[in-house]
Amino acid sequence: MSGNPQKQKPNILIFMSDQQRGDTIPPYGKAKTPNLDRFCREGLTFSNAHTISPHCCPSRATFFSGLYPSQHGVWNNVDVGNTLSRGLYEGVRLWSEDFRDDGYAMSYHGKWHVSGLEGPEHRGFNEAASPAAGYRHSRPHTREWAQYESMNAGSGIDEQGERQEGQIMRKGYETYAHYGVHEDPFNDRATVEEAIASLRKLGSHSSGSPWCLYVGTLGPHDPYFVPQRYLDKYAIDDIELPPSFNDRMKDKPGLYRKTRDRFDQLTEREHKEAIRHYLAFCTYEDDLFGQVLVELEQSGEAENTLVLYISDHGDYMAEHGLWCKGLPCFRGAYHIPAVIRWPAELKNPGRIVDAFINLADFAPTFMEAASIQTEREFAGRSLMPFIRDGRPEAWREAVFTQSNGNELYGIQRSIMTKEWKFVYNGFDYEELYDLREDPHETRNLFGQEEYEPVVRLLSEQLWAFARTVDDVCINPYVMVALAPYGPGSAFRSRATNP
Questions:
Q1: Which of 9, 274, 329, 425 lies most in the core, judged by the most C-beta atoms within 10 Å?
Q2: HSE value, Cβ hemisphere, 13 Å, CA-based, for 393
Q3: How far apart are CA 195 and CA 309, in angstroms?
Q4: 87 in Cβ contact with 65 (< 8 Å)
């Protein structure tokens, strides 16, 4: 199964944050990230990296399998009561299993959220994920009703008291606190300390075999609670609302507006405070990442260790008045950080690559980096040519996404090129944005006759890609076949290379 035995296989170190926007690191740099600033200077930054779905579970399953949700079977949160799927399709193999079989020492710490039926220890790693990692139940949990009973649900907003700063009041639900202060949010510091302890053991492994260490933190996921010292690095008066903040989305799906309604309880200053807390959370994660890098460099193994900093998906961060992530198909939820450092192999460090890449590309990248052969096909493509300072021929010219919704279900597929974004919404009318004239996606052009040729071409490309990844949202029944151009258009496609 192994490739060239004479070449020393690299170690692999992955640091995956949760819900981090791509523009919080260089070359965008909205957050203060001194460790990532240095890391980017020493590595290769992908400035146009995207997730395939703006939710933890499908995106993480894609990262480990190199497949789209239609191929691996994970569509939404595997741990909720109304989940569509609890785990991966039978026969889906993860790259971590290949690494185990190739002799790698495998260590896992932090969030899993790939399957509710099995943990990382079933998929090549030595350790189980942490208790908060999304692998806990043999069936979807049903504890929600007990929670509502204990809080006397349905008592009404009047009995919840007066709304405090950063709170969102919800009748019949518990009050949601959007941001605040906490010394160790989501226990991320403990996760990193455990990972550093494992790194020390891996570095002193008596067999000298290569190793793979995964560190999965939960920040900067909402709610945005951060240590005060990181919050102090940002002045509220320096925070600006995004250009799309005042977009009331009247030309967009009703669900988008309904989602914003809750966040409209926040004042503009509270939105700025939430941005401040989110950016501070990114700085906190940067500090944790820096601690891992220091340990790696002290181990003497940094030269031949491929280090990846990445996130599973982004966050709206007040764009269009929205927060967190969900069905609104805006760039903030899909654009992610992705940086690779590998001193032994990376040519001309400090480069920025603006080619479209996505989470499915890392499985084939790791396999090629470790010279591990496989006969199975991936939806993604290896990034090794970029690492070697080249560019593969016929690289993709579009980003394709798949979502069936996050517990409020709705079929959604999209295609984005450098010029256009088209969103097929099975639950509402479609969206079309001219990204050259409207990079913040504020003016929906769908339905305007002069743009019909664009809709047709992008629909053809969207369905052509759907065919390559076995996407079956193609039911011809008259009540659900609602795309402006159906899947039959795939066969007359002039689609770009996926």
A1: 329
A2: 0
A3: 15
A4: no
Q: Report strand pairing: 224-226 vs 179-181.
A: parallel
CB atoms within 10 A of CB 158: 9
Q: Where are the alpha helices (DSSP H) in 140-187?
A: 144-150
Q: What pLDDT is attached to residue 495?
A: 47
Ordered DSSP codes for 372-413: B---S--SS---HHHHTT---TT----EEEEE--SSS---EE
Strand ordering across the sheet containing 431-434: 399-403, 412-416, 420-425, 431-434
Does the pLDDT of residue 456 top 90, yes or no?
Answer: yes
pTM: predicted TM-score of the whole model, two decimal places: 0.94
Q: What are 228's two structure tokens? A: 């005060």
Phi/psi for 146 (5° steps) reads -65, -35
The C-alpha atoms of residue 458 and residue 438 are separated, in whole angstroms, by 18
- 3-state class of 97 per DSSP? helix
CB proximity list for 154: less than 8 A, separation 6 or greater: 171, 172
User: What integer pLDDT is reported at residue 207 of this predicted model?
Assistant: 62
CB 279 within 8 A of CB 23: no
Residue 370: burial class (beta carbons within 10 Å; 0-12, 13-18, 19+): buried
Rounded to the nearest 10°, the torsion over CA 324, 190, 202, 56 is -20
Q: How confident is the model at residue 79 (pLDDT cuts 50, 70, 90)?
A: confident
In CATH, 411-492 is 2.40.110.10: no
Q: For residue range 45-72, list pLDDT tens digits in order.
A: 999 999 999 999 999 999 999 999 999 9
DSSP letter for each residue of 55-87? SHHHHHHHHHHS--HHHH---S-TTSTT-S-SS
DSSP 367-381: HHHTTB---S--SS-
Residue 129 has pLDDT above 70, yes or no: no
Are 327 and 406 spatial neighbours (Cβ–Cβ below 8 Å)?
yes
Residue 417: Cβ-neighbour burial (10 angstroms; 0-12, 13-18, 19+): middle
Q: Which fold has domain 11-142+176-387?
A: Alkaline Phosphatase, subunit A (3.40.720)
- The domain segmentation of the chain, as residue ranges, is 11-142+176-387, 411-492
